[in-house]
Amino acid sequence: MQTEFVVINSATGNAEYLYENRDAHRLGTLGKASASVPLFSKMVELDEKKYLDGGLADSIPVECAMK
């Protein structure tokens, strides 16, 4: 099963849809990033990029769901 997370790339301000289904550490990091709400949480670094909760940029990811 593939797990998808919606996060915001802090450098671009755009929503990104990231997947993980093998690496437990990366899966946990993506989970933290997708729940990292500005003003309440720190940005989460992954693959040399910093991420925040994707719900701020794409609260209902309809386009991604339709794919």
Walkthrough of the structure:
There is one protein chain. The protein is of the alpha+beta class. It is built from 2 helices and 4 strands. It has a 4-stranded antiparallel sheet. 18% of the residues are buried.
Summarize the model shown:
It contains two helices and four strands. It is an alpha+beta fold and 67 residues long.
> Terminal Cα separation, in Å?
16 Å
How confident overall, as mean pLDDT? Answer: 88
Principal-axis shape equals globular
* Biggest sheet, spatial arrangement of strands: 2-1-4-3
Write the layout of secondary structure elements.
Elements lengths: L2 E7 L5 E6 L3 H11 L9 E3 L2 E5 L8 H5 L1
Antiparallel strand pairs: 1-2, 1-4, 3-4
What are the salient characteristics of this protein?
single chain; 67 residues; alpha+beta; 4-stranded antiparallel sheet; 31% strand; globular
